[in-house]
Amino acid sequence: MASVVIITILAGCTASKPLNDSTVSATLWVQNSAEYEALTTMAYQSAEAQLDTALHTDSWTASLEQQGNDYGSLPPAVVLDVDETVLDNSAFQARLIKKSESYSSKKWNNWVREQKADPVPGALSFTQAAEAKGITVIYLTNRDVSVEEATYQNLKKVGFPLKKDVDVLLTNNERPGWSSDKTNRRKYVAENYRILMLLGDNLNDFLPAKDRSGSERKKFVSEHKNRLGTQWFVFPNPVYGSWEDALYNFDSSLSPEQIEAQKLEKLDTKN
Asked: PANTHER family, alphabetically (predicted)?
């Protein structure tokens, strides 16, 4: 009997341990809430409703890299982030939680190679509608070039439009200077296409926001609020992102305890 009690207690501890992970509720929300599906669908439907106006307005550009009037004759394109914008990777996060494991690039790349990510709700309809109007769909992702083929096959498998004769999947480190900052890749696209819309879950999908403080990021949003909902479409991602890193000023030297303390300081109780 004593051994049964001990086993039961240990089993209970093992089962409850993952619930201490800070991403549990966020991952459950993405995977189970009707609200998440409603938000992503609403964003994509709003973007699709703007396509004709954007397409037939020569001066329309969503890109800060396109200045002057020399882009009006370029072929149109929409530029989308991949992870948590067109592909839902919440299953990968769920695995980490259930196994009480931490993220690593090796585990992430192994997940990417499985090609099991599902479409974010609304993404297929939008990208297929854009393609039907003659708009090139470009995927600008911070997945590494080493998993570009697996990413391409995942996108293809679930039905996303992909041109055969043009590289529309632009990955991190694919070319010299193409870093996680994304600015140089947006410039590359802006030289070849009139960018009608930018869609992503991270501020860095729209402008150079890497390593910027929380106050700077909010200032960016305020400065470009007129683009939101017409040229820029932001998707909810409560699980991870540079918004979280900004809470502790992107200081990777901090211990987990110090990071936790920094996060707690950011909680506003209005006291």
From this structure: ACID PHOSPHATASE-LIKE PROTEIN (PTHR31284)
> Which pair of tokens denotes residue 258?
């110090």
β-pairing verdict for 118-119 and 87-88: antiparallel
- Domains of the chain from N-terminus onward: 23-263 (3.40.50.1000)
Low-confidence ranges of the chain (pLDDT < 70): 1-20
Q: Is the pTM of this model over 0.85?
A: yes
Distance CA 16, CA 79 (A): 41
Type of residue found at 176:
P
- Given a contact cutoff of 8 angstroms between Cβ atoms, the answer to whether 235 and 85 are in contact is yes
Burial 65-81 (b: 16+ CB within 10 A, else e): bbeeeebeebebbbbbb
Q: What is the mean pLDDT of the chain?
A: 92
- 160 touches 119 (CB < 8 A): yes
The DSSP string of 38-97 is: HHHHHHHHHHHHHHHHHHT-TT----TT--TTTTTTSPEEEEE--BTTTEE-HHHHHHHH
Dist CA 253 CA 250 (whole Å): 9
Q: How far is CA 220 from CA 140, 160, 203, in A?
A: 21, 31, 9
